[in-house]
Automatic annotation (TrEMBL):
It comes from the Eukaryota. GO terms for molecular function: zinc ion binding. The keyword Transport does not apply. Keywords: Metal-binding, Zinc, Zinc-finger. Residues 127-166 form the MYND-type domain. This is MYND-type domain-containing protein. InterPro entries: Znf_MYND. It comes from Rotaria magnacalcarata.
Length: 169
């Protein structure tokens, strides 16, 4: 059974929580908590949700699915708001077991529970492998993946399988 996520009016009084502190074996809304994360992978839209990969401040990763975003805003949100390196706070995060794969994910049903951090906090030109800012090397095929070194690019292609999502632009 799904549970309802309610949005707090501000971050004041909320306790920080990490992905490791959340129980991945049960559906649960962490009322009174805030989860601070960075988007670490390209964002995609599948009706009716936006799919992201997020990393918390301890470098733990999880999938995140956003539902109930404003009609007609999917493309804008995935291309301009929920971009690699963007940081956000999730108020009263909801960790849910996926319906088909039974793997945990952060589910957003109340769009207003997402508070984007200022652009000055964003990691610009984030390396797809190690997360470092100001990565100078760009994938020659897709022109989107950035890397700080050739070693990071090799790791992303061989270990993280960038070639499966890489598409010529």
């Amino acid at each position: 059974p799904r549970v309802r996520q309610q949005t707090a009016k501000s971050l004041i009084g909320l306790k920080a929580i990490s992905l490791k502190e959340m129980d991945p074996t049960t559906d649960h809304v962490y009322d009174g908590y805030v989860l601070s994360v960075t988007i670490i992978e390209q964002t995609y839209t599948w009706t009716p949700s936006i799919h992201l990969v997020i990393e918390d401040e301890n470098f733990d990763c999880e999938r995140m699915f956003i539902y109930s975003f404003p009609d007609g805003q999917g493309k804008y949100l995935t291309n301009k708001v929920f971009t690699i390196g963007s940081k956000m706070n999730i108020i009263n995060p909801y960790l849910r077991l996926g319906g088909t794969d039974m793997k945990s994910l952060v589910r957003i049903d109340d769009f207003s529970s997402i508070i984007m951090q200022s652009e000055s906090e964003q990691v610009l030109n984030m390396c797809r492998c190690c997360g470092e800012p100001n990565a100078l090397h760009v994938c020659s095929k897709c022109k989107q993946a950035r890397y700080c070194t050739k070693e990071c690019q090799t790791i992303d292609w061989q270990l993280y399988k960038h070639k499966f999502i890489c598409q010529r632009q």
